[in-house]
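Re: the multi-chain job from yesterday

Posting the exact lines I submitted so nobody has to dig through the queue logs.
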Amino acid sequence: MDNFKKKFIEEATDLIDGLEKALLLLEQNTEDAGLIQQVFRVMHTLKGNSSMFGFELIDRYTHNLETVYDLIRSKKLKLSRDVLDVTFASVDHLKQLLDESNYNDADFITLHNSLISRVSKIINAEISSETSDESSKKDTTSDASKEEFTYYIRFEPSSDIFKNGTNPLYLIDEIHTLGKAKVFAHLNRIPLLNEIDPLQCYTYWEIILVTGSDVAALNEVFIFVEGESKIEIQRVSEEDLLVDEFFTTELTRIAKIHKEIGLATTLKIAETAKKRFLQSKAATIKKEKVGLKDASITSIRVSSEKLDSLMNLVSELVTTQARLALYAEQSNIPELANISENVQKLSRQLRDTAFSIVLIPIEHMLTRFQRLVRDLSNDLKKEVIFITDGAETELDKTIIESLSDPLMHIIRNSLDHGIEETQERIKKGKSKQGKITLKAFYSGANVHILISDDGAGIDPDMIREKAITKGIISPDKKLTNKEILDLVFLPGFSTAKKITDVSGRGVGMDVVKRKIADIRGEVEIESELGIGTTIIIKLPLTLSIIDGLLVKVDETHYVLPLSAVDKIYAVDNKDINDKFNNVLVLEGKQVPYFNVRKEFELPSSDQEIEQVVVVNYEDNHVGLIVDYVVGEYQAVLKPLGKHYKKQEMISGATILGDGSIALVLDTNKIIKLFSRIEEYKIKKNS
Amino acid sequence: MNNENLSKINSFLSFKLGEEEFAAHVGKVLNILEMTKITEVPRAPEYMKGVINLRGTVLPVIDTRIKFGMPATEYTTNTCIIVLDVDMDGESIHVGALVDSVQAVLEFDQSHIMPAPSIGSRYRSEFIEGVVNVDDKFIMLLNMDAVFSSDELTKMHDKTKETEDTATIVEIE
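And the result, structure tokens for all chains:
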């Protein structure tokens, strides 16, 4: 049973997420009948499922909500802001309801009851407005309680009908009030113009009416013209056939060709239509059940544990393959080398496929942000739209999971501190509505996510001032604008003048930076005063395997991410060791360098020729001097563990073909660290 | 086997650091490895010897002697790595402890464990669970969780100036 419950919760979570997404769209376009229908259907499914699995509270709750949207669907209730607000609150509440442990919480129950009463208030308001309008009330009750039938009516008024002062069109109108009707007016008996007697009626009608009323009620319509007119009323079906397309088009077709349809033909068509109708009805019921699953028919649901173990196996395979390659090389058996090469090709493909499986589009977390922007801009009384671009960009699911909190924080910041109040925006000559854009795109082996707002921007002078008062920098320190902006990533630095509920609690961008660093990502900030701020997040595509360059320094192998490597040069040892300023001239350009041996406090080497690996660092090239370059290597990243938490410049370790360990270096961090050490040494010496 | 059952077992693995003998509860010991090549991690504190490949996973190795304020381990044929399962901030973590030699598995009743002397001890009392007298030798029972969980590592003895410098630089990050 628990298993079923888990399944239900999983499905319900999907449904509720879908509901939220549909609601956000609906808010933009309140008249969209398709969306209303979708919202209604989700609620209906949720209701059905929850009652099946014994989630009574959800069942009853969604029942009420469903009623509201049923009323909206049938245009008896307007989709007001109030209704939407309640629905959004309900969506949040439904998520909580899935967790049964909440049920014992008194606050939770109070909230539950207050929401229920809010929902019922909406329904009651509608019902009371109905009672004031007698006829519509009658309509709804009959709508709801009765079945509908399809009638065939043939109304051929006597040619003298006008002389009694009767307008046959009024009768047709009256028929219309009874239900849905399709009217065929036959004009074939109308003579040529010069022969027309304007006092005579030449027209006769055939009507297909769908109504809950009985034959007697229909006869009543024609009660005054009964005597002189030919009237034929016949029930042709127990169902509402007018919804069936085939039925109506067939009738229209026949009416066109044969001038009149006749009861017999109608019955015949009705018979075929009925069969089709029943089939399609069964189909729609089925469809409604699967409804939302339609989109996922081409995909299957796999537990993330299975994916994780698949990834682990692939990683093991890649490691084993590296061993095989090593032995194949040593053994000098051409056949073995062949096989090993094939295994390498296959394992590479398998690796890529397995990776693409765990990649999910970032769209998955965007709904949450849409919602955040909506709610928060309401609270802050700012008008803000949230635009996303590149939502289909895919990232490792673990990255997406750890990305959602930092992104949430950045968007909150933009809303709270970035976007100005409406009045101020108008004063500045900006559009009334603020704009927050989230843009994602691939850049090499990385994914970049840009969050920009068109708000006030960050004043570097203010940051500087604040950093000085907080003692983070000394007053005489000269910093570029970029360096000043980077200060906001330091712990305890919150730039908001006043602390608001939304952000500015001092746990700010430093947490964002740390969390993103945890997934080997980087954050940058760009801001222009008065124009806006952009936060740039650079992320690796995956966490577990990287293409690297294997190098050796002293006794240890290191892996540099290939994506960071620009070029490799060989240089004379003398050129390095006798240098004073740590700058090499390569291809006519000056390249600053670090000697890895020296920085790692290893004895200097006596090799005559050393290798310089030039890597990209921010916008520059930096050389790293290593003993020698082994070659390209697929590194399966293994964590170094908590004990080496502080060695940030090492992103992990990988096991080489011979079973020894190579350390994977984070080039950005290592260069930052090296520059700090050099700076530190200079300071210490002076 | 759950923790309750484990703590009922009164077996301890004894090992030597220099001339002194220590013991760890067998429930904490996963494995004893012969000395193998340790890959050094640059700019790490001195007692963090490096990492080894333990059947496909990366295991950090700690030089227990440095940690206990003795000179660094000199590798002999008796040098071993004891693989321990320690509890760090509620998380179970595997770590290798470099020791001079592994002695024996001892069994004794809980009642034989005497409290560690609080005065005149060379070691901080929270690392020592108790002392046992075996054949007129005193063996110190170590609280492995306390000794090998990371933050405590630096506090056992004074840091050398050098490691402190490195630590500051790394912390600026």
